[in-house]
Inverse folding.
């Protein structure tokens, strides 16, 4: 028998699966980079950072500064909605309340990254965070998280009330000790995380009133529902990353139609609930016009994502949701001020 040329050996099925997995991983990394970095200059064109600048950037990443700031904005608006006096008369109290809340939220994010550092190393989106990238020691990150939590709680106890501090402790514990470990166990982790994430505006309210009310419950409900389209949009963009790390962030095992449908239903519930302040006479009816305009924009983004669940539409939904929440709460505050 004559053999012409080198013999070709067909790779086994596990080898093919491994190769396809590597290809998908590289493809997802490329998509992630294009989504968030496509308009940035190449790294070699950027000046090298000083050591101080690097440390500063590491701590911004460790605390997820932009997300923490967005959460504290809702605390600020919850405070303003509860306020009966001019802000100028309590500006120091308001500022310290927000500082304490920010420290607690930043601590929660830092504890989360300490816990998930090994999983973060597996995902293209998070592999460059300080801990998986080895730019920060685990002991340093853990120490920083503990200090931020202590400082935040001490400030809240000193300048607000025990009720507000207790809410902060509950939210911190729920996020770190329940939501974080459940991400690898059940898709209902988002529900637990949404409860923790809905507490900050209530903290702002209780810092002023030291009590709960219908308006405080409404603040909680609005922020609770908002988190589903926000986080499911993120989870959809990075579903391959999350699957690789073993995170179960999407409902119904990530089924495309089910995710799109539930995202739209939660968005519709949020927009419907946003009309409640006007319907209950908390604000003037003109509030409904602004709330409807904001709601139509968010519903439109959720509908387009449902029709075409691509990374681009998921990103638009996420950005629209990020703008929607503070805009709605600010509208609520302005219209309530006009009604006073």
């Amino acid at each position: 028998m004559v053999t012409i040329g080198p013999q070709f050996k067909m790779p086994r099925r596990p080898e093919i699966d491994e190769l396809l997995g590597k290809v998908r991983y590289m493809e997802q990394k490329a998509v992630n980079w294009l989504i968030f970095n496509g308009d940035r200059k190449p790294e070699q064109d950027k000046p090298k950072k000083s050591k101080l600048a690097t440390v500063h950037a590491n701590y911004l990443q460790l605390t997820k500064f932009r997300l923490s700031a967005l959460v504290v904005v809702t605390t600020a608006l919850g405070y303003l909605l509860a306020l009966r006096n001019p802000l100028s008369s309590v500006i120091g109290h308001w500022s310290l309340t927000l500082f304490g809340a920010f420290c607690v939220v930043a601590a929660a994010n830092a504890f989360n990254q300490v816990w998930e550092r090994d999983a973060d190393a597996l995902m293209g989106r998070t592999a460059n965070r300080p801990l998986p990238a080895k730019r920060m020691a685990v002991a340093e990150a853990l120490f920083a998280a503990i200090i931020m939590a202590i400082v935040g709680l001490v400030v809240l106890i000193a300048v607000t009330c025990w009720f507000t501090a207790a809410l902060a402790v509950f939210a911190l514990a729920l996020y770190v000790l329940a939501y974080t470990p459940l991400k690898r166990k059940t898709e209902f982790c988002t529900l637990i995380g949404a409860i923790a994430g809905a507490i900050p505006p209530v903290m702002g309210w209780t810092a002023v009133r030291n009590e709960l009310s219908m308006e405080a419950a409404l603040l909680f409900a609005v922020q609770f529902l908002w988190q589903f389209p926000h986080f499911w949009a993120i989870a959809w963009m990075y579903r391959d990353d999350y699957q690789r790390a073993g995170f179960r962030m999407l409902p119904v095992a990530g089924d495309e139609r089910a995710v799109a449908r539930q995202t739209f239903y939660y968005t519709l519930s949020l927009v419907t609930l946003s009309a409640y302040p006007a319907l209950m006479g908390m604000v003037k009816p003109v509030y409904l016009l602004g709330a409807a305009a904001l709601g139509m924009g968010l519903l439109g983004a959720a509908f387009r994502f449902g029709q075409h669940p691509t990374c681009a539409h998921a990103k638009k939904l996420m950005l629209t949701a990020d703008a929607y929440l503070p805009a709605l709460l600010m509208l609520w505050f302005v219209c309530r001020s006009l009604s006073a």
